[in-house]
Amino acid sequence: MDKRPRKQAKTRRSTSEAEVSSIEWDFIKMTEQEEDLICRMYRLVGDRWDLIAGRIPGRKPEDIERFWIMRHGEVFAEKRNKHRTKNS
Protein backbone atom coordinates (compact mmCIF):
# COMPACT_ATOMS: atom_id res chain seq x y z
CA MET A 1 0.00 0.00 0.00
CA ASP A 2 1.19 3.49 -0.80
CA LYS A 3 2.31 5.40 2.29
CA ARG A 4 2.25 8.85 0.71
CA PRO A 5 -0.11 11.30 2.38
CA ARG A 6 -3.35 12.00 0.59
CA LYS A 7 -3.71 15.27 -1.21
CA GLN A 8 -5.91 17.71 0.59
CA ALA A 9 -8.24 20.10 -1.12
CA LYS A 10 -6.84 23.57 -1.37
CA THR A 11 -8.71 26.04 0.72
CA ARG A 12 -8.47 29.69 0.00
CA ARG A 13 -8.94 32.05 2.83
CA SER A 14 -8.89 35.75 2.38
CA THR A 15 -7.34 37.68 5.22
CA SER A 16 -10.05 40.30 4.84
CA GLU A 17 -12.81 37.79 5.54
CA ALA A 18 -13.81 37.81 9.16
CA GLU A 19 -15.38 34.67 10.54
CA VAL A 20 -18.68 35.27 12.24
CA SER A 21 -19.79 33.09 15.11
CA SER A 22 -23.15 31.46 14.49
CA ILE A 23 -24.25 32.74 17.88
CA GLU A 24 -24.04 36.30 16.53
CA TRP A 25 -26.26 35.64 13.50
CA ASP A 26 -29.29 37.83 13.08
CA PHE A 27 -32.59 36.28 12.13
CA ILE A 28 -33.23 36.32 8.40
CA LYS A 29 -36.71 37.40 7.47
CA MET A 30 -38.31 35.32 4.73
CA THR A 31 -41.79 35.53 3.28
CA GLU A 32 -44.12 32.57 3.73
CA GLN A 33 -43.72 31.78 0.03
CA GLU A 34 -39.92 31.73 0.36
CA GLU A 35 -40.09 29.50 3.45
CA ASP A 36 -42.43 27.10 1.69
CA LEU A 37 -40.22 26.97 -1.39
CA ILE A 38 -37.09 26.39 0.70
CA CYS A 39 -38.76 23.49 2.55
CA ARG A 40 -40.01 21.89 -0.66
CA MET A 41 -36.68 22.32 -2.43
CA TYR A 42 -34.79 20.94 0.57
CA ARG A 43 -36.89 17.78 0.42
CA LEU A 44 -36.07 17.44 -3.28
CA VAL A 45 -32.37 18.34 -3.47
CA GLY A 46 -31.18 18.29 0.14
CA ASP A 47 -28.66 20.86 1.31
CA ARG A 48 -27.67 22.10 -2.13
CA TRP A 49 -28.12 25.70 -1.12
CA ASP A 50 -26.91 27.10 -4.45
CA LEU A 51 -29.74 25.32 -6.30
CA ILE A 52 -32.33 26.49 -3.78
CA ALA A 53 -31.05 30.09 -3.86
CA GLY A 54 -31.23 30.03 -7.66
CA ARG A 55 -35.00 29.70 -7.36
CA ILE A 56 -35.37 32.68 -5.03
CA PRO A 57 -34.39 36.02 -6.56
CA GLY A 58 -32.14 38.18 -4.42
CA ARG A 59 -31.13 35.43 -1.99
CA LYS A 60 -27.61 34.04 -1.66
CA PRO A 61 -26.87 30.39 -0.85
CA GLU A 62 -25.29 31.49 2.43
CA ASP A 63 -28.51 33.28 3.43
CA ILE A 64 -30.60 30.21 2.66
CA GLU A 65 -28.29 27.91 4.60
CA ARG A 66 -28.18 30.26 7.58
CA PHE A 67 -31.98 30.54 7.54
CA TRP A 68 -32.30 26.74 7.46
CA ILE A 69 -29.84 26.21 10.30
CA MET A 70 -31.47 28.85 12.46
CA ARG A 71 -34.95 27.53 11.73
CA HIS A 72 -34.24 23.83 12.17
CA GLY A 73 -31.09 23.66 14.27
CA GLU A 74 -31.33 22.51 17.87
CA VAL A 75 -28.65 24.99 18.91
CA PHE A 76 -30.90 27.92 18.06
CA ALA A 77 -34.07 26.61 19.73
CA GLU A 78 -33.64 28.84 22.79
CA LYS A 79 -32.79 31.89 20.67
CA ARG A 80 -35.87 31.25 18.46
CA ASN A 81 -38.12 31.11 21.53
CA LYS A 82 -36.72 34.41 22.84
CA HIS A 83 -37.20 35.99 19.41
CA ARG A 84 -40.81 34.79 19.21
CA THR A 85 -41.73 36.06 22.67
CA LYS A 86 -40.10 39.42 21.97
CA ASN A 87 -42.14 39.86 18.76
CA SER A 88 -45.43 38.64 20.29
From TrEMBL:
Domain Myb-like: 26-74
Keywords noted in UniProt: Developmental protein, DNA-binding, Nucleus, Transcription, Transcription regulation
Domain of life: Eukaryota
Alphabetized Pfam families for the sequence: Myb_DNA-binding (PF00249)
Keyword Isomerase among record annotations: no
Subcellular localization: Nucleus
GO molecular function: transcription cis-regulatory region binding
SMART domains: SANT
One Gene Ontology CC term in the entry: nucleus
GO biological process terms on file: regulation of DNA-templated transcription; regulation of trichome patterning; trichome differentiation
Keyword tRNA-binding among UniProt keywords: no
Name used for this protein in its record: Myb-like domain-containing protein
